[in-house]
Write a structure and sequence with these properties.
globular, 5-stranded mixed sheet, 14 strands, alpha/beta, 2 domains, 21 helices, D-Maltodextrin-Binding Protein, domain 2, about 45% helix
Length: about 500
């Protein structure tokens, strides 16, 4: 198992005096025991917080107890991350390397290691879900935390193998350093078995957006869409107007393909992303607070059809899936940057991964509303990495360290994420930074996507690939299965003691 603690020794030397002083301060206030928590208060920001709490959000302001764990290992079992230069995916790094986010993660972990006398280590595995299940069922307690894609962990949670974050010691589920929208959208009967927030930014890079080529807008005498967004008038119809009449058979071979210019570079996922941005839902809560299937309503069927029409419109839209499968998604970014299309639907992740180094003058926009009567923009979040705590873990130890890492991330990891991946380094203008505020404030999740058994995601994707816009028939064909999946989900969670 990789353990970065030894590599952190020199980097943490400058923190030592501060941490020792902090330890003295904490021990003077609580009796100074070590080895067990010095407080039973599991609400980090309590009424006894000092004025420093108003100025900074970090471990010092949290009110968390300091514990000497005598070198105990805090082991994380992670899905494999082949390219670990993508620091926004990482929860631990081996050394500083000048990358702002990498170094922030390194320094945060070093501080928490020093405060609690622990070692933080990550092991990567390709056979992740099977290995997670096997380890838990065998009673293996080697790992405090599992780290994997949201869909995989949510679906695995139905087997009763993870701890409920709502019940975990020290985890403050009302704190802003945990993703409050995720908590609201994915909690089932006061149970939630997956979680993320400031502790790791990867899920934010899976927020879906529209990017546009600003130079192409100028050349085609089109207005920049920013003001339209701010006025609340950025809708599906307005997007369609922008991308219409852009297609051009540049090589004159009588067919439109990757050698030509397109209005809209998209992907099959656009069908359900646009559905959500227009206010569609797969599930919604009823009057009793229970989640139930909602995609079969007249409004949602109409919205799905409209989303599919745009996704499958060969007069404006090129789907990137096959090209990406044959090459890579980074190759798709390069093609777009060379002037291949006016607009592109994408997750945010290609911005730090690809566009940071590509020569293209682009802007970022939220996904459009269905129409201008829609109250606000909606940003669907895709399949990023989240955390789960196996039932074999020590809940008190794991909860305390997770909470400490999360609160310490607010002024370290999160600002570095913005700096490294977005503002000032990858984005090209201040207007796009304003758009990010709208995008992150409008995030949404849906159990209908995170629960793989419901089948909505595959249904919409398959329709898009076939160019089929008959959402009503497709929804009717999966309705019974989806309703059964919701019932089974409730039965599974109710059976968890």
């Amino acid at each position: 198992m990789k353990n970065a603690t030894q590599n952190r020794t020199q980097a943490t030397a400058s923190l030592l005096l501060l941490l020792l002083l902090t330890a003295v301060s904490v021990s003077c206030g609580n009796g100074g025991e070590t080895g067990t928590p010095t407080s039973t208060d599991t609400s980090p920001l309590s009424n006894t917080a000092t004025a420093n709490t108003e100025e900074h959000i970090n471990w010092e302001s949290s009110g968390l107890p300091q514990v000497d764990y005598d070198g105990r290992a805090f082991n994380i079992l992670s899905a494999d991350i082949p390219d670990r230069s993508h620091s926004w995916k990482l929860v631990d790094t081996e050394e500083t390397n000048g990358d702002e986010l990498n170094d922030a993660i390194f320094t945060r972990n070093a501080k928490i290691e020093e405060l609690y006398n622990i070692s933080i280590g990550v092991e990567y595995t390709t056979d992740n879900v099977s290995k997670f299940r096997q380890l838990i069922l065998s009673g293996d307690d080697s790992y405090s935390v599992y780290y994997n894609f949201i869909n995989k962990l949510f679906t695995l949670s139905l087997e009763g193998v993870f701890c409920n974050f709502h019940d975990m010691p020290y985890i403050n589920m009302e704190a802003d350093w945990w993703d409050q929208q995720m908590i609201a959208d994915l909690t089932v009967d006061d149970s939630l078995y997956i979680l993320t927030g400031d502790i790791n930014p990867h899920l934010n890079t899976k927020s879906f957006v529209i990017i546009f080529n600003k130079d192409m807008c100028d050349a085609l005498d089109l207005e920049m869409p920013y003001e339209t967004v701010l006025e609340g008038n950025w809708t599906l119809d307005v997007l369609k107007q922008y991308v219409s009449d852009i297609n051009s058979d540049l090589n004159g071979d009588g067919k439109m393909d990757w050698n030509d210019r397109w209005g809209f570079l998209s992907e099959k996922a656009n069908s359900y992303i646009m559905y959500f941005s227009g206010g569609g839902r797969v599930t919604q809560q009823n009057a009793d607070g229970k989640w139930e299937i909602s995609f079969d309503s007249d409004k949602n069927v109409t919205l799905a059809q409209k989303s599919l029409e745009i996704t499958a419109d060969v007069t404006t839209t090129l789907l990137a899936d096959d090209y990406a499968a044959q090459n890579s998604w980074s190759a798709v970014s390069s093609w777009y940057s060379a002037g291949g299309a006016l607009m592109r639907s994408t997750a945010l992740e290609p911005i730090p991964r690809d566009y940071r180094s590509l020569d293209v003058n682009f802007g970022v926009l939220p996904y459009p509303k269905m129409d201008d009567t829609q109250a606000s923009y909606v940003t669907l979040v895709g399949e990023g990495y989240v955390f789960a705590v196996p039932i074999t873990a020590d809940e008190e130890f794991t909860g305390l360290i997770l909470e400490a890492l999360a609160v310490e991330s607010v002024e370290t990891v999160t600002p570095a994420f913005y700096d490294r991946c977005l503002n000032g380094k990858a984005l090209r203008d201040e207007e796009s930074e304003d758009m990010l505020d709208i995008i992150f404030a409008s995030k949404t999740f849906d159990i209908g996507l995170t629960n793989n058994d419901i089948g909505f995601l595959n249904t919409m994707s398959n329709l898009a690939v076939k160019g089929d816009t008959n959402a009503a028939s497709a929804f009717a064909s999966i309705l019974s299965k989806a309703e059964t999946a919701i019932e089974d989900m409730y039965d599974s969670f109710a059976a968890i003691e």
